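User: Hey, my collaborator sent me this sequence without any context and asked if I could get a structure. I don't really work with proteins. Can you help?
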Amino acid sequence: MSVSRIDSAVLPQPLKLWEKIVVVVGEGADAGRYASRIEDFQGDALVITEPQFVSGHTLLRDGMPVTVQLTRDDAIYQFESRISRGGADNKGQAILSAPGDFRRVQRRLFVRIEMDTRIEYAVVTPEIDWTCWEHALAWKEAQARDLSGGGMRMETPEGVTIGALLLMRLRRLKQEGLPEYIFAVCRREIKEKNGRALGLEFVLVERLDQIASAPQAVHLPPVLAQFNHAAQNRLVVWIFNRQIILRQKGLL
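Assistant: No problem. I've predicted the 3D structure and written it out in structure-token form, which is a compact way to encode the shape of the chain:
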């Protein structure tokens, strides 16, 4: 696959044709987010597909300065640019001016944000009938403490052991257009002053068959099979933007 001549000491591999990007315009909670892909390279400029609105309240207009983000296996990277539609060959394209310096803004799966909110969980066992899963599962409440793209920490009563498979119901994520239900494995116990907390690792649908007692993804209702690699990337980006908002408010 062809790659650009644009290189950076920060970016491990050059930009590639058809690579997914997110174009961000504005700042803070009102920032607009638009999805696109790289279609071609014109010198140092990038030809991209027409950006498609994802979220936010700031409209993307011709000539505006933008921040461009791309997700790689190790991190999210971003650079500053300016968008233009005047030089595009057709109406389905736009042009990004030559990228500024690339910045690595976050390690995937490891950077966490505090999330002090109530959640629900249920222990998964092999005999659960997934055709009536909402009634077959014994739902309990717990207090979430933090969240990352790869897992979370939660305070919980006794009864969840190391290695247990859980189904998490995260209504807070549903409000952000992210999967509400995520499978997770209890990986460690954390002793805290005010009680017991657990470290959970989220399980991608693609990896369910590697976990003992996990249901086969093909037998799951669609609502329970949404946390795939793409959804995890969206979660990582959401956490990154939450960090920006919290820093602007002086909370980080």
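In plain terms: The chain has two domains: 20-107, 113-247. You can pass these tokens on to your collaborator as they are.
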